[in-house]
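Hello Y.,

Per our agreement to keep a running log of every chain we model this quarter, I'm adding this entry. I've kept the format consistent with earlier entries: sequence first, then predicted structure.
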Amino acid sequence: MASVLRTLRRLVRSSKTLVGTDLHGNEYYEVSAQGGRRQKRYVKPMGMLKADQYTQDTIPVEWERWLRWLRDDPPLHKELQWGQHRLQQVQKKAREVEETDEMMRKHEANGMQGVVIP
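Predicted structure for the entry above:
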């Protein structure tokens, strides 16, 4: 009987609420707390990733900020889309810079120093 009461108390104290999802399908939850303690926030990843398999792209920055209590409200879907677009633009620019650097290194190796590359 005591274990049943303990289980019921635990269920009442920790009711989790789905707050939202990201563009990858990850689900974000908030667990209510008793006694003036702060709620807990966590992510339930889509798929079966191990802790060492997470990359920068696994959890969007906007949700990361929410999880760490750096923002109060969960991000909007439109905000996530814009963030993903911005990330793609930065990655594209980085590839272009790397290609230009590689071209310059090849020209310098061939003795064509001082040649301006567009």
